[in-house]
Design brief:
This protein is of the alpha+beta class. It has helices spanning 5-8, 12-18, 106-112, 118-121, 125-131, and strands at residues 23-28, 31-44, 70-75, 79-85, 93-104, 149-152, 162-165, 179-182. A hairpin with a 2-residue loop joins strand 1 and strand 2 (31-44). The chain has a single domain (5-182), classed as Roll (3-methyladenine DNA Glycosylase, Chain A), CATH 3.10.300. The protein is built from five helices and eight strands; from the N terminus they run ααβββββαααβββ. Strands 1, 2, 3, 4, 5, 6, 7 and 8 form an eight-stranded antiparallel beta sheet that branches. The longest helix is centred in the N-terminal third of the chain and has 7 residues, at 12-18. It starts with a helix and ends in a 9-residue tail after the last strand.
Length: 191
């Protein structure tokens, strides 16, 4: 079942947890590339690590709503990262999808990733965007439309099966417990 806009129109910390075990689906050249979401990070406008911390810009304007849209950005001059916009319109919030467990289209994902091992295919933000062919053309894409790029419902996850920890690869706000991942999942980027 496709996740509706109401799913995303909630607090970023709730959505970040609830996205775990859901499926990110990418329609690519007539094929479905699917990964189960196993790791997320939450960002909101009052968070110094958030792209919207200093206000709205051309780069981050998608974060200000409406919820349920893709926020894709280019980083380090070589990688894309994929986020899901959450919360109310006008309040910048997004969930970074950090890692996926490959489910379908694995051979195509391997080709897009240059033949990496299955464990390494989608186990990081830049890896998953490369493996699912997500780039700036999908920035602002409506994830509730059910075409090209969208998220479908997964099985709920028990609280005891979710690890809550600090985020990775940031300097500001690094002490905030805004990273969530499925316990004992081998596709998580880092434990």
């Amino acid at each position: 079942m496709l996740l509706p806009r109401q799913f995303y129109a909630r607090d970023v910390l709730i959505v970040a947890k609830d996205l775990l075990n859901c499926y990110l689906v990418r329609e690519y050249n007539g094929h479905l590339l699917i990964g189960k979401i196993v790791e997320t990070e939450a960002y909101h406008q009052n968070d110094p690590a958030c792209h919207a911390y200093r206000g709205k810009t051309k780069r981050n304007e998608v974060m200000f709503g409406p919820p349920g849209h893709a926020y894709v950005y280019f980083t380090y001059g070589m990688h894309y990262c994929f986020n899901v916009v959450t919360g109310a319109i006008g309040r910048a919030e997004a969930v970074l999808i950090r890692a996926l467990e490959p489910v379908k289209g694995i051979d195509i994902i391997k080709t897009l990733r240059g033949g990496k091992s299955e464990r390494e295919l989608l186990s990081g933000p830049a890896k998953l965007t490369q493996g699912l062919a997500i780039d700036l053309k999908l920035n602002g894409h409506d994830l509730t439309g059910g075409k090209i790029l969208y998220i479908t419902k997964g099985e709920p996850v028990a609280e005891e099966d979710i690890v809550v920890t600090t985020r990775i690869g940031i300097n500001a706000g690094k002490d905030l417990p805004y990273r969530f991942y499925l316990k004992n999942n081998k596709y998580v980027s880092k434990k």
